[in-house]
Amino acid sequence: MNYRRLGRTGLKVSALCLGTMTFGWSADEATSFSIMDAALDAGINFFDTADIYSRWIDGHKGGESETIIGKWFARHDRDRIVLATKVRGQMWDGPNGEGLSRTHILRAVEDSLRRLNTDYIDLYQVHWPDKETPLEETLSALDTLVRQGKVRYIGASNYPAWLLMKSLWAADKHSVTPFVCIQPHYSLMHRAEFERELEAACIDQGIAVIPYSPLAAGFLTGKYTRQNTAPDSTRSEGGLIQRILADPDRSFAILDEVNRIAREHRVPPSHVALAWLLAKPVISAPIVGARTVAQFQDVAGAADLILLPEEIEALNTASAEC
Question: How many whole angstroms separate alpha carbon 189 and alpha carbon 320?
């Protein structure tokens, strides 16, 4: 496994990050333990979760993923893992049960720490913006957690470029802890949103990028074909897959190029899609999830694949309009 600095920090993370949204939902506790064991054996030291996982599944209140990770920590060395979680979604009833206010953040972090069976979080991320809370209030609350030692680094998810830059400016103005990374939606099938402005801002400011859905909800694993556009999948994949299949000619043309390069390297298609991301210096670690150990093992070796310049250019050309 290759390890990379998390943006401008000195923190080293594996070139792949294990996403744990499936834990407690499509992967039961035993399976989740096995996936984390396999990830650790593969050299992955970076796990990502969120307090709301699986809040939106079957009416659950959330916390299942964090709880499973906390149970796993009971029999593993916590310090071997760079642990990331997120805050923002509704976790309890009432007007302060969600958001990025000081009140919500300070309670939510204590709940996450308890579920995770740890006294610190390596990377605490705001899951998406909260337009009702002043940015300075959110940054001040996060800075408090860093000063208390409960959080070591902070980051953002789903922030547009302008809001990321405003956040960095506000942190500098008020001498509080700045964001060191961002988690955007980015893949061969979804390029424009990140590349239009956010990529340049991250490069300029030294912000680490840990993209989610790098395999486009499984489309870039090769399980979808022109003959089979409805393989076994989870409900969370449905909306994104529908958008991808809305233009099947373009989407399968991209997948054809991915498959061609995969055959030449004798690797799964997922390795090519992830290697394309990892070829970009701004990318620290794509987030890969799995429902089974077999699914995880299908992507585990992707960080070892180095694409040729002409292969990267072919993928760029095929996906230029995404």
Answer: 9
Superfamily of 3-218+272-305 according to CATH: NADP-dependent oxidoreductase domain (3.20.20.100)
Catalytic residue numbers read 53
Structure tokens at 35: 């996936």
pLDDT tens by residue, 134-182: 999 999 999 999 999 999 999 999 999 999 999 999 999 999 999 999 9
pLDDT tens, 250-305? 999 999 999 999 999 999 999 999 999 999 999 999 999 999 999 999 999 999 99
Of 185, 187, 186, residue with least CA distance to 272: 187
Domain spans in the chain, listed from the N-terminal domain onward: 3-218+272-305
Instruction: Select from 218, 156, 213 the least CA-distant residue to 186.
Output: 213
pTM: 0.95
